[in-house]
Design brief:
Elements: E1 3-6, E2 9-12, H1 22-31, H2 44-51, H3 73-83, E3 91-98, E4 100-101, E5 113-114, H4 119-136, E6 144-152, H5 160-173, E7 175-186, H6 193-201, E8 206-212, H7 216-221, H8 228-240, E9 245-252, H9 259-272, E10 276-281, H10 303-319, E11 323-325, E12 329-331, H11 336-342, E13 347-349, E14 352-354, E15 359-364, E16 369-372, E17 375-379, H12 383-391, E18 397-402, H13 405-420, E19 422-424, H14 425-432, H15 436-439, H16 441-452, E20 456-459, E21 462-465, H17 473-478
Helix pairs in contact: 1-11, 4-5, 4-12, 5-6, 9-10
Bound molecules: iron/sulfur cluster.
Iron/sulfur cluster binds near residues 101, 108, 110, 112 and 210.
């Protein structure tokens, strides 16, 4: 039997704790959902009908549709300047957006530019360097970067030389902590060993790879030619180069996906044994992402079949020893995500679940989002807009938002529900100096059906999401969202929750 040691504590991979640390046992048992936990229940089909509706994924609160032009580049600059003093020791997180992709995956929900003209990268990197210069001139060198993430698009669209060039450029202009977490999204299809070597040599230690599905039929329906061998090779290279953590992304709800086909995909993933697995619900929003019209709606699994696929996936991954994290992540028992969930220090950000918090996040590149103090700011979403701003010598902020007290309070509640699957009411009252039952009169009424449907429990001063309630976590969080009714109902801006 496989034994895992965590912080000097030994557990077996089948989740039976065999040492004598009772605090650890108690904490781990709180985050473990056992395979026989009541996920399905007798009334799941009815609940699905009742709660299936468009809703945010809450990688931020308020959500991006609330960002407005009133928060422009001047405002962004003013807010950064306020933070730029030697006493500010708040850590930094940097996000770099590399928008380019070689071909279009029909399911894609990212901000991308599809091109085979590699010359466009050089121009983009020149602008990115100018933005890095601008931002770094406002950031006191006392402040340390503890996290950097490159996303896209496809960061590995860059050549190994370009990767090294931009990585060393940014590292010279910010102070990086020795143990900074440097992560990157990889597309295995055009990856070479040299790409990974360049990333590793520049300090990257975590990799996230899109797999989506192993079924050839499904991959063909989403225009993603990624045979099994391609993923296997990318995983083998990353392991040989010593990346400490490998995350693989799967997507359920894709066209032509069946329970049987996805079961094979999950078996395959379990054999690959990544440290983390993200299982995303396909966001079918052709009114926002018109290229998704290339997917035939009749090829999409029904909500009932999607739910079956999800339940099978959860069960298989838990049986294989993974811990279910938040809404859509799975991690090995010794992974930092598991330990964070156990210690109630898990966080949610634009990249999903994270162990790090308490930093200022600065986005660089087209469409990237920053979040610092109580501000959100998003860069121009087109290359033309982004280049124009940088050419004019200012930040590329297009829209933004400054949070109010009410936003901060609701964000805290939504994030605790999405991360801890529970809410300690006294904690909220103390932190925000409010009386919960008065402040959230409306939310309490909205929560009642979830309590009656046994998707939530109220015991003493704790609101707890049940195992089955986890399948409706977005709906539960929506009870605390003050803006849903204000966002247009005619043209939903969010994907369906089920
Ligand atoms: S590679 Fe990723 S970002 Fe690019 S089109 Fe495909 S899913 Fe979208």
């Amino acid at each position: 039997m496989k034994i895992i040691i965590i912080c000097g504590i030994t557990i077996e991979s089948n989740l039976i704790i065999i040492n004598h640390c009772s605090i650890y046992k108690e904490k781990l048992s709180r985050v473990i959902m056992k395979p026989d936990d009541d996920l399905i229940g007798p009334n799941l089909a009815e609940l699905m009908k009742k709660y299936d509706r468009p809703g945010p994924r809450y990688t931020s609160y308020p959500t991006a549709p609330l960002f407005s032009k009133e928060f422009d580049y001047e405002r962004y600059k003013r807010e950064i300047i306020k933070l730029n003093h030697p006493n500010n020791k708040t850590d930094l997180s940097l996000y770099l957006h590399i928008p380019f992709c070689d071909t279009l995956c029909y399911f894609c929900g990212c901000t991308t530019i599809i091109t085979q003209n590699r010359d466009r990268v050089k121009e983009y990197l020149d602008y990115l360097k100018r933005e890095i210069d601008l931002l770094s001139s406002y950031i006191h060198p006392n402040r340390k970067v503890i996290q950097m993430h490159w996303g896209g698009g496809t960061p590995t669209y860059l050549t190994p030389v370009e990767i090294s060039g931009i990585a060393s450029y940014i590292k010279k202009r910010f102070t990086f902590s020795d143990d900074a977490e440097l992560s990157v999204e990889i597309d295995p299809r055009e990856l070479t060993l040299e790409h990974l070597q360049a990333l590793r040599q520049n300090g990257f230690n975590r990799i996230s790879m899109g797999v989506q599905d192993y079924s050839e039929k499904v991959l063909s329906a989403i225009n993603r030619n990624q045979g099994e061998e391609i993923t296997r090779q990318a995983v083998e290279w990353s392991r040989s180069l010593g990346f400490v953590s490998l995350n693989l992304d799967l997507v359920y709800g894709l066209p032509l996906q069946t329970l049987e086909s996805f079961e094979k995909t999950v078996d395959h993933i379990i054999n690959v044994s990544p440290e983390r697995i993200a299982v995303y619900n396909f966001a079918y929003v052709p009114w926002i992402k018109p290229h998704q019209k290339l997917i035939k709606p009749e090829d999409l699994p029904t909500p009932e079949n999607k739910m079956k696929i999800l339940l099978m996936t959860i069960k298989k991954l838990i049986d294989a020893g993974y811990i279910y994290i938040g809404m859509d992540h799975f991690a090995k028992a010794n992974d930092e995500l598991t330990i964070s969930q156990m210690n109630k220090s898990l966080h949610r950000n634009f990249q999903g679940y994270s162990t790090k918090a308490g930093y200022d996040l600065f986005g660089l590149g087209m469409s990237s989002i920053s979040y610092f103090a109580n501000n959100y700011a998003q860069n121009a979403k087109t290359l033309t807009g982004y280049y124009k701003a940088i050419d004019a010598g200012h930040f590329a902020t297009d829209v933004g938002y400054q949070m109010s007290f009410d936003d901060e309070l609701r964000k805290y509640i939504i994030m605790r529900l999405m991360c801890d699957l529970a809410l300690e009411i006294s904690e909220v009252e103390q932190k925000f100096k409010i009386v919960f039952k008065e402040y959230f009169k409306d939310a309490i009424v909205s929560l009642q059906p979830f309590i009656e449907d046994k998707l939530m429990q109220r015991s003493g001063g704790t609101l707890k999401v049940t195992s089955q309630g986890r399948l409706f976590l977005r709906n539960i969080a929506m009870c605390f969202d003050a803006y849903l009714t204000k966002i247009s109902k005619e043209k939903p801006l969010f994907s369906r929750t089920v």
